[in-house]
TrEMBL record:
Family assignment from sequence similarity: Belongs to the class I-like SAM-binding methyltransferase superfamily. TrmB family.
Chain sites annotated for binding S-adenosyl-L-methionine: 125, 150, 177
Pfam families: Methyltransf_4 (PF02390)
Protein name (database record): tRNA (guanine-N(7)-)-methyltransferase
Enzyme Commission number(s) from the entry: 2.1.1.33
Keyword Methyltransferase: yes
Role noted for this protein: Catalyzes the formation of N(7)-methylguanine at position 46 (m7G46) in tRNA.
GO cellular-component term (any): tRNA methyltransferase complex
Pathway given in the UniProt record: tRNA modification; N(7)-methylguanine-tRNA biosynthesis
Residues reported in the UniProt entry to bind substrate: 203, 233
């Protein structure tokens, strides 16, 4: 993460603008100053951490912009206009100007961008690695948008480059945990979901992509004739997946062993060289057992605050963690702003926590973007409203 360390900073007079960087306002507590920063269409917090005899300035990790260059450029502006050169202790950010314009439509930098680009038929490939299978599907199905989701960022850049070289435009790549993606997609919107050679996690099955909740999400997002396809060298993962999908009423399965496909992935080549068996499991006809489909939006209209509420909230704030059956809510930090308070919270499902900043003045609002509308998040936010309404009085709100 780019950052620099400085002995002291000048008085912060905001808003401040230089070229495309706007430092708009700040929020503060005893340890940290957050600076609401905008570069072109993106907003994020720069974080000034107060240490004993110095300050560390870096990007806030939960609001960081999709383009690292935006952060680098903002740090550069902050250093040039709010610090004296002779006070700089160390510096770890290099900035190339053309990085600001480097952009490809083959990569979505967040779920909102991804959702905005989805139209027509879609396939999804989870953990596409070297991308051979994903590019093959895109080439052979020009009327389909093939969405690739990978947690390993270099794979995203590499496959986007390969697609450009081969003039393939019907792909959209995103860096994220695949377990998060399905829950933001519309019901019945996907034709195929590929999971090829997932990490088996034999010793830590809870880390597998496949889980009961994932199968329910497949059922929700797959269209009528849509199907899920697992290809694996792990007989155990194959069995495990089959069992997970057997909890539906009347699923249909196709099982194959050592089927040759036209395209072989990097991992498949490796396992074939070792003479390992390869298993295919196709699943479809998943009836909807999933609940929480018609979720209301996050609604803060029923709660308002006056000056006294804000004083009590600030006074009573605690690092509280609350747990429900399938969700949690954690109050991480509190910051003061000119006309109110900002809470940093973590919340949602245990395996897919969200981190957000919430602004509280007369009303409540999410700073930056809203979390996804999944039932665990909605439950956590309902709880948040109660906690705030009763000013952290544990006895009253629980
Ligand atoms: C064993 S490799 C297989 C890659 C590719 N499918 C192939 O057949 O060559 C597993 C890939 O899944 C990715 N991965 C693991 N867990 C993931 C998750 N939860 N969400 C998205 N990608 C994941 C890893 O980064 C890795 O690239």
């Amino acid at each position: 993460m780019p950052n620099f360390k400085v002995k002291k900073i000048k008085k912060l007079i905001l808003p401040f603008r230089k070229d495309e960087v706007e430092l708009e306002w700040m929020a503060e507590n005893d340890n940290v100053i957050l600076i609401y920063t905008k570069v072109n269409e993106e907003s994020f917090f720069l974080q000034v951490k107060k240490e004993k005899d110095s300050f560390i300035i870096k990007g806030d990790k939960h609001t960081k912009p999709s383009k690292i260059a935006y952060l680098q450029k903002s740090l550069q502006v902050f250093r040039d206009y709010f610090c004296h050169n002779e006070d700089i202790i160390s510096e770890a950010f290099a900035f190339k100007h053309n990085a600001l314009i480097e952009k490809t439509s083959l990569i979505a930098y967040d779920f909102d961008q991804l959702l905005a680009q989805i139209k027509g038929k879609i396939y999804i490939e989870i953990g596409f690695g070297s991308g051979r299978h994903l590019l093959y599907q895109a080439k052979n199905n020009p009327d389909v948008l093939v969405i690739g989701i990978e947690i390993y960022n270099p794979a995203i850049t590499q496959v986007a480059k390969l697609a450009k070289k081969q003039n393939i435009n019907n792909i959209l790549l995103i860096q994220s945990d695949a377990r998060l993606l399905l829950s933001v997609l519309k019901p019945n919107s996907v034709e195929k979901i590929f999971l090829h050679f997932p990490v088996p996690w034999d010793k830590k099955p809870h880390r597998r992509v496949i889980a009961r909740n994932f199968c329910e999400e497949c059922a929700r997002v797959l269209g009528k004739n849509g199907r899920f396809e697992l290809r694996t060298d792990s007989c155990e993962y194959f069995d495990f997946t089959l069992k997970q999908f057997l909890c539906f009423n009347s699923p249909k399965f196709t099982l194959k062993k050592n089927e040759n496909l036209e395209i072989s992935s990097k991992y498949e080549d490796r396992w074939k060289k070792q003479n390992k068996d390869i298993f295919d499991l196709w699943v479809w006809n998943l009836d909807n057992v999933c609940d929480g489909l018609n979720l209301d939006d996050f609604d803060f209209s029923d709660i308002t605050f006056n000056a006294n509420d804000l004083i009590l909230l600030e006074k009573n704030f605690k690092n509280l963690t609350l747990k429900g059956d399938d969700y949690f809510l954690h109050f991480e930090n509190l910051y003061q702003v000119k006309e109110g308070l900002i809470f940093k919270i973590a919340f949602g499902a245990f395996n897919k926590p969200e981190h957000c900043y919430i602004g509280v003045s007369k009303n409540i609002e999410f700073l930056f973007k809203k979390p996804f509308k999944i039932k665990e998040n909605l439950k956590a936010i309902e709880k948040l409203k109660k906690v705030l309404k009763f000013h952290f009085d544990v006895i009253v709100f629980s």
